[in-house]
Write a structure and sequence with these properties.
Layout: H1 12-41
Amino acid sequence: MADHTHGEMNAEVQEHTFEGFVKFVGRSIVFILCLLIFIALVNG
C-alpha cells in the first residue's frame, strides 16, 4: 500500500467544484426571490 502523509492531498478540483456550486446556489436564491416578488406584485 502507498504511504500517505496527512495534508498532501491535491484538492484543486474539489475547490473549483465547490466554488461553482456556491455560485449556482447564490444565483438560484436571487432568482427565486425575484420570482416571488414578481408574483406578489401581480397578485398571483
